[in-house]
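Readers outside the structure-tokenisation community will struggle with the description of the input data as it stands. Showing the layout once, in full, would remove most of the difficulty. For illustration, here is how one protein appears when written out as sequence plus structure tokens:
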Amino acid sequence: MKKLKKNKWPLLFTGTNMVLFVTFFFVPAILGFYYSLTDYKGFGTPNFIGFDNYVQLFQDPSFYKSLLRTFTYTICLVPLMYFVSLGISLLLNSKFAKGKFFAKIIIFLPWTISGIIAGVIWKWLFGENFGFVNYMIEQSGSNPVPWFSNSNTAFAVIILAALWGGTAFNMLQFISALKNIPKSYYEAAELDGANAFSKFRYITLPSIKPTSFMVILLASIGSMKEFALVQSLTDGGPGTANVFIVQYIYKTGFEKMKVGYASAASMVLFVILLVLGLIQMKIGGSTDE
């Protein structure tokens, strides 16, 4: 009894997390897998059809198109976000930088804005007929750019908006990791005549490797699940050129009322994200060897 009383707070917090996990993850996951094996439309009684939804899904060109666009988005965004976040962190961590406090506030503000609001802001900036960017282009004597009429320029705007909104969180992780590197490492390197690049390569990068893996993992998962920003910015346009996988699931499940089919697509996305997580655990686990 005394031991139980001593450990009540760890048990309480652990138990609360377990209840939340079961309620908001495990049960919905089981329910989603069940619906993926049915013809459920969001109403009525679901009829069991086995793996027909998965067979149909893997024969759907639209599914592969949305998945490819999502992978392309992730491959383009994650390295950009990594290097921009790390670069800003190095600047803000430098002893020569001025106005660090205000710079952190300015960079951090976009992260506090929801994806829907961020999409509206960037749609206003790059609007073809009313956008601020095209207005400035016209004032310089050039023709306005049809940002959202071309799939590639619309895709580029999405990446810029995501980079603008997601840099702050990664920046905070890098700043924390940089502050934890012992200064004695750099002092010893300076005594040996190491230049700035050598110190960055042989001290900074190895020291922040666990943080780097975490940033890449979270950015990859977040990119694969991108929805609100794209929905409010381009709605997958022009046409269906920039429909990402979560948008595909949303449109299939809620607009076409094919919840069972959308659940099958969700299960495929879950497996992809699980594989990404396992790869990260494998790579991250080998860094200490």
About this structure: The chain has 14 helices and no strands. The CA atoms of residues 69 and 244 lie 6 Å apart. The mean pLDDT is 86. The first helix runs from residue 2 to 6.
